Each structure stands twice: as C-alpha cells, then as structure tokens.
Amino acid sequence: MLTIGPIVVYLLIAFVLVTLGLRLSGRLPAGSFGSLWGVTGLPLLAVGSYLGLAWSPADWQMGEVQRIMYVHFPSWVGTAAGFSTALVASVLYLAKREPRFDYWAHAGVEVGLVFNATGLITGSIWGRPTWGIWWTWDPRLTSTAVMFIIFVGYLVLRAYIEEPDTRARFTSAVAIIGFLNLPVVYFSVRWWRTLHQPQSTPETVAPEMVLALRTMMLAFLLVCGWMLTRRWELARLRGEAERGSWEMETAG
Amino acid sequence: MMGGTGFIAAAYLFAALILGGYSVALARRLRRERASSRMRESGQATSGPAAAAGRADPAQAWMAPEE
Questions:
Q1: Could you give the CA distance from residue A100 to residue A229 in angstroms, rounded to a whole number?
Q2: What is the pTM of this model?
Q3: What is the distance between the alpha carbons of residues A28 and A21, in angstroms, rounded to a whole number?
Q4: Domain range list for chain B
Q5: Residue B22: phi, psi to the nearest 5?
Q6: What confidence tens digit (pLDDT) does each residue in A37-46 have?
Q7: How confident is the model at residue B54 (pLDDT cuts 50, 70, 90)?
C-alpha cells in the first residue's frame, strides 16, 4: 500500500489539476466537471475512511482518538476551497458585474459554511477527550467561529436585499472582507499561544498517516467541487428567474 | 491514553450527517428548480391568450420550490 498509495495520490492530484484547468478554460462544462469530481470523490471517501480508521496506526500520544483528524482536517480543505471560490468570484463580480460570478460566490459561501460547520463540530468532539473540554476561546477556535459567523452574515444579507445587482455588490464586499479572516485562522497557532496544536508536517508523522490524510483531503476536495457546481447551477437557475421577474416588475 | 471509540464514531457520524444531509438537500432543491425552470421555459415558448392565461407568474414559479 505504501508503494502504490503515494503514486495514486499524485495521479489524483494531476486529475484534479487537469480537470480544474479544463473547467477554468471553458473546455469542460460545469455539469461534467462536477460529475467527474463527484464520481471520483465518493469512492475515494470510502477508501480514505478505511485507511484512516483501520489501516493507519494510532497516535503514540493521543491513541485511537487521533483518527478524528482524518475527517476534521479535510473539512478545512473544503472550507478553504469554498471560501476561496467566493473570494475569486466576488472580486470578478466587482470587476466585471456579470451575474455568473455572483452565483459562484453564493455557491462558494454556502458550501464553505457546510464544511466549516463540519470542522467546528468534529474539532469540538476531538477536543473533549484530548483537552478535556468541548470548547474554549482559544485564538484558533475563536477566529474559526468568527469566520463562520461572518459568512452566515453573508447569507443573511443576501436574504434581506431584493435588488439583484445591489445584493451582489454588497455581498461581494462582505465575502472579500470575510475571506481576510482565513489567513488569521491559519496563522493563529503560530502568532499566539494556543491550546490548538500547530500544523504537523509529513516528516514528523508516520507515512501511513500521511497517505490516509492526503486521501481524505483529496476526497473532501472532490466532493466540495461536486457540491460547488451543483449549488452554482441552483443559484444560476434561481438568479435567472429572479432577474427576469425583477426586470418585469421594474419595467411595469 | 484512551480508546475514544465513541468520540471517533460521533465525529464521523456528524460529518456524514452534515455532508450527506446537505448533498441530499441540494440534489432535491436542484431537481425542483430544474422542473420550475422547464415550466417557465415551456410557458414562455407558447403565445396567444390561451397560453398567457395558463402561464405561470415567473416570481411565483421561482419562489415555489422554497415553500
């Protein structure tokens, strides 16, 4: 497994990069891109869960409970992918004022929030047996909770502004400001004294753990991509209908 | 230090519930929205008083899946 596993992981990374490149260049439709990532991501999720739960060794210090890492950390990969999509789409919307970018931003925030919630809950469950508490106002945990609240605010703001262009403009600004918190979350364990451990490197953990974690990270990224394309299509269908009815109302 | 099987099971269960639940809800919302979109398109494709009488209000059709 340790011989062929890393090769498969690199092949999957190449698959991710190639399909993403094809999608961004417009050669691969969003629907096909999402389906490809979904079809690859779901079985990979099963393989990664097996590797994390049964195949990789237990941590020398935390014991078996460390296996929560294989679902906790990949959640942040999905969170970062969702919110990064929202950031890029929001900047593009403000620059070009094309509704499709607003649809991508909306999709990115909603999907990012789903993964953010997963990360917060699995982290809290992991915290109880290792730290003895479900939650503490530690810089990493607090900055993550703030990020979650900011993007919930983004969705609330969307619900309160009726005019589509004004809504897209205002929420784009919120998404860009909200994203500024992401580096704070990442570096919080280095900038301040925290209960949360700093990032591990592949050199400091067993190779089995690296393979299991990378498999789950890829699986979560692929599932996140599938969700993003589906949520974007939903936003587009609703947006087009809404813009049509809004134009009819303002014209009438 | 400790077994923690219950915590591991809880973490994986919550992750599956959140991600799986969202995926299912998203698929259902998308299916309904596609159906609404098809209805709107078929309404707009026809013309004349009879078609106009049966045509769905775009605002209503857009809001329907949410209810």
A1: 12
A2: 0.87
A3: 9
A4: 23-39+56-67
A5: -65, -40
A6: 999 999 999 9
A7: very low
